[in-house]
Write a structure and sequence with these properties.
- This protein is of the alpha+beta class and 480 residues long.
- It has 2 domains: 346 residues, no CATH class; 60 residues, no CATH class.
- Helix 9 packs parallel to helix 11.
- The longest helix has 43 residues.
């Protein structure tokens, strides 16, 4: 069997979106919205038809009516609210239309930054979307190398280091600096950080790595043939290795074929393919750009929201699994209650098996579910919910049994004394000096009476303290 060979492919230009997840202080949602509006970010609403061509580049206009008809009504209501609120996906967009360039591995790739989205999702999850256009002709491996390096927020591996960005007459040593020092510096104070873990994604300690998710629509020169190795490399973002050469991460034709069966959509083959992986959701075509305007518009609108919704599912399911792994059963009874509430709300309000009424939407949604392992992770979360319920019931049973034991003890002792624990010396002014002369049964009565009073007082104090603690925890856990 011959190993897979790299087939060259010439690219005319392409559109690339990068999804950047973060956690923000839920209690500061309105404050963040006010700050975004001061920074000229516009709230995205389907009723604002003037925004149809505002954020996607020249000659690209999405159809709000198409967005409205693409999703089921119960999904549309959350994705496209008429005004920002906590239970929806509130999107704020700003047009930039400025040029920049990425320098890496001895090559320079110019790009144009079209716009930036900040989508405030439920449960304190935010998604930042960067829309770029790369309009220079280049080889496929250079395009993939650009996407590979731009999506790295914090470079830690050797194959990720060395890239710098020049834009707005400034030089940025990383994508992280480009975002927070130039694009949207006002976002940084609102990010919720996990102090136990370093780095940017310490804000999302349950997330996989320090890379953004990419989505691209790439136009190759007409007359070329798309091959399996090219589509595989697009899904894996196999660009240039440390030697500066084009590379592919698998040399087995059988493996590549199995990979494409699961990850590639060949509805428009042999001219257009869409591949979805853990790193990217991208389309490559050899058709003339003028013939692909509808597909490009859908990439910017319906397919973008389909991806955004399932990417949110992925983040939330990983978060719930992470939260469960950090439960301290003996100390975190209130935390367990909050986690049960969080899982229940997410399952009932947001996680839907069917989201789109269109065939293409259903196909892409199924691919996202398979590639992101959503069904398996969701089943684990459901099992976690059942386990939390059982644990909570067991703890409640133990507390009730202990309380019943104490009440039974006091009831039995009181019954022995004929429901009367009063000693004559306690009437009026109590002379505690007579206590040493008490008989055995009088001592029993004294101990039982005082401990009963103390226990009652303790139960009242504990109940009040637990209530205050729960409210305080809810306030502190502002991402809930």
């Amino acid at each position: 069997m011959k190993p897979v060979e790299i087939t060259p492919l010439d690219i005319e230009h392409g559109y690339v979106n990068f999804l950047f997840p973060f956690a923000f202080h839920e209690k500061k949602r309105q404050e963040l919205i006010d700050e975004l509006e001061r920074e000229d970010y516009t709230f995205f609403c389907l009723n604002k038809t003037e925004l149809e061509d505002a954020f996607y580049g020249p000659d690209i206009a999405v159809r709000h009516a198409e967005l409205e008809q693409f999703f089921f009504p119960f999904v549309e209501d959350k994705l496209f609210p008429s005004s920002p609120h906590d239970n929806s996906f509130s999107r704020f967009s700003r047009s930039f239309e400025e040029h920049g360039e990425l320098l890496v591995d001895g090559s320079t790739t110019p790009f144009q930054l079209h716009s930036l989205d900040i989508t405030l999702c439920p449960f304190g999850i935010g998604l930042l979307t960067i829309r770029l256009e790369v309009n220079n002709e280049m080889a496929l491996h250079h395009m993939l190398n650009f996407i590979h390096h731009f999506r790295v927020v914090e470079a830690k591996l050797d194959e990720e280091k060395g890239a710098i960005i020049r834009a707005a007459e400034r030089t940025f040593n990383s994508t992280n600096d480009y975002i927070f020092q130039h694009m949207i510096p006002c976002l940084h104070p609102f990010i919720l950080r996990e102090h136990r873990l370093p780095g940017y994604f310490g804000t999302l300690p349950y997330f996989e790595d320090e890379r953004m998710y990419s989505s691209a629509f790439i136009f190759a020169k007409s007359g070329q043939q798309l091959t399996n190795d090219q589509i595989y490399r697009l899904g894996q973002l196999d660009g240039i290795n440390l030697k500066g050469e084009p590379f592919i991460s698998s040399t087995s034709p059988n493996y590549v074929e199995r990979y494409l069966k699961r990850h590639a959509n060949d509805r428009s083959a042999p001219f257009t393919y869409t591949v979805t992986s853990e790193y990217t959701h991208s389309t490559v075509t050899v058709c003339d750009p003028s013939d692909m305007q509808d597909e490009l518009r859908q990439f910017m609108s319906t397919h973008y929201y389909n991806l955004l919704l399932h990417y949110f599912y992925r983040i939330m399911l990983l978060r719930l699994s992470f939260e469960h792994s950090n439960v301290s059963w003996k100390k975190d009874e209130a935390y367990v209650e909050e986690l049960i509430e969080m899982i229940s709300k997410f399952s009932a309000r947001y996680y839907f098996g069917e989201v789109s009424v269109r065939t293409t939407g259903k196909e892409h949604a199924k691919t996202f579910v398979d590639v992101f392992h959503l069904d398996e992770t969701f089943q684990e979360v459901r099992d976690t919910l059942q386990e939390l319920y059982r644990t909570q019931e067991n703890q409640a049973d133990k507390q009730q049994n202990f309380l019943l034991f104490m009440l039974t003890t006091f009831t039995v002792v009181s019954g022995i004394y004929g429901m009367n624990l009063v000693i004559e010396d306690w009437k009026g002014f109590t002379d505690w000096g007579k206590a040493p002369g008490y008989s055995f049964f009088e001592w029993v009565a004294l101990v039982v009476a005082l401990s009963g009073i103390a226990l009652s007082f303790l139960l009242i104090v504990t109940t009040i303290a637990t209530t205050i603690k729960k409210k305080y925890r809810r306030y502190r856990r502002s991402q809930f």
